[in-house]
Specification:
Elements (H helix, E strand, L loop, with lengths): L9 H36 L10 H29 L3 H18 L13 H27 L2 H4 L5
Helix pairs in contact: 1-3, 2-3, 2-4, 3-4
């Protein structure tokens, strides 16, 4: 008679250890990805005010571009959760993004400011952080409720 619990064999422990290593490697790759996206998008957001003084069409294009970017950022973060099967990926991406954003907000060595106090730059900062925070919260709530993560064996 076998008295050992299911899942306590050496093969199961090895598989569990491999799963943990894969998850840590994923998080180690996703956080720098968030930093790169945060840095690159912050530099690009600096261009939203380039033609602001040109009038209504340029301002409308900048606002629409910002809204599309924020929606893509939320969707990308949710796709990271779905692909990794854990909300930790969204948290790692968000952490990298926000760290890069805070670095860009400050002064550069030459004294230039990448993102100014302009209304559209503030909307970029707040909108991107809100999109990422909501993606993390929605992912965490689904995990806590036992939503699709638990039903599909970890895939959201």
């Amino acid at each position: 008679m076998n008295t050992s619990r299911p899942g306590s064999g050496p093969e199961d422990q090895r598989a569990r250890g491999t799963a943990v290593l894969v998850r840590l490697a994923t998080l180690a790759a996703v956080a720098p990805l968030g930093a790169v996206v945060g840095f690159a998008s912050s530099i690009c957001a600096g261009w939203l005010t380039r033609y602001w003084e040109a009038g209504q069409p340029a301002q409308l294009i900048a606002v629409v571009a910002l809204l599309v970017y924020v929606a893509l950022l939320y969707t990308g973060c949710r796709l990271l959760v779905w692909g990794s099967g854990t909300p930790d990926a969204a948290m790692a991406f968000t952490t990298g993004f926000v760290v890069a954003l805070f670095v860009v907000i400050g002064y550069n060595p030459g004294g230039d400011i990448v993102l100014t106090g302009h209304m559209i730059h503030n909307a970029f900062q707040l909108g991107s952080m809100l999109a990422l925070a909501s993606a993390v919260v929605v992912s965490s709530i689904r995990k806590a409720r036992g939503g699709r993560f638990a039903a599909r064996g970890g895939r959201g």
